[in-house]
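assembly run, all chains below
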Amino acid sequence: MLKLAAGMARLGTESAFEVLARATKLKEAGRDIINLGIGQPDFPTPPNIVEAAVKALRDGHHGYTPANGIRPLREAVAEDMWNRRGVQIDPDRIVIVPGGKVTMFMAIAMFGEPGAEILYPDPGFPIYRSLIEWTGAKAVPIALHESKGYAFSAEEVLAQITPRTRLLIVNSPANPTGGVVPREELDKLVDGLRAHPHVAVLSDEIYARIVYDGVPHASMTAYPELEDRLILLDGWSKTYAMTGWRLGWGVWPKHLVEHATRLAINTHSCVNAATQWAGIEALKGPQDAVEAMVQAFDRRRKVIVEELNRIPGFRCPMPGGAFYAFPNITGTGRDARTLQDELLEKAGVAVVSGTSFGIYGEGYLRFSYAASTEAIQEACARIRAHLGRNT
Ligand code: PLP
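ok done. output:
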């Protein structure tokens, strides 16, 4: 018998992938399934970015690169950080990684161990809790509130900090809720963090470019007092429809860069070279494809929220960012997992139960609106019809 390390039993997963697998199976069996379960843009990567990767391969960029990423890419990220967030970042504080998830892994691996506590948003991206528990640290959920547009209360977060707290994870705009934390709430949080200098912060801003209604994205990098303990997670996956390329960046405090780079050397060595060159084109090339994509998401956002609010038993606030709607479904009399399964099996609509994102996700479903308007309308019509027949 092989004996696995104890941490393996504590690793979780992303249920969205399980729903996707079940939906695919049903599709293969001939069922007509509308998939609103997946968390990736339904657009192709813009062609200028694809061409840059092809050119890099033709130009002979086939070898290892520095573990923290090629210098011109880190410079392009620094320039982007200046243009979009108004912060001056030394390119040597930037670590290029294969996807935003890897910055998350590095930060949690760096601070998590038995006896430590890490605060994470709930409902939130399921990998936060999974990785925290894998390290043996205690995962402490921060409740997000529907009544606050799925933001946290800074006061509640600060009250959960103990001498054992090592890391606080913040995600805005958020998966799975589409919630955006208002700048005033961040101000309060950062102000309160002065009293807790032992706490590092991981700000997951992977959806920073997907925001609506002209409200500018409030970045945690705007607070110079956090510079020595803030890790910024961002990347190309969502902004440039590049989820399959595996490319992300972290901005690290100076004293942690060496540790992040060492983790890279011990795991993936570097991101494949051609993808890094494509990343430069993405940041420095024309941005009209990004703008068009966000405008399309915005139109669908309005459609889906209106449609969801027409379903008896559903109540859905307007999300401020990302491409998810997170309706409260308690009025249907079902729990979230039951309704998820029922909608997939009986209505042919794949969505994800809020409980896949944490204990505070009970009573909610996640709908991804990275799908056509027709698919969104048809999905909601099917749900209405299904619930009409079964209430
Ligand atoms: N952070 C959040 C909140 C996400 O939703 C995702 C992907 O779904 C990631 C990070 C990971 O992004 P990537 O695909 O670049 O690893």
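The chain is about 40% helix and 15% strand.

The radius of gyration is 21 Å.

not gonna interpret more than that til we talk
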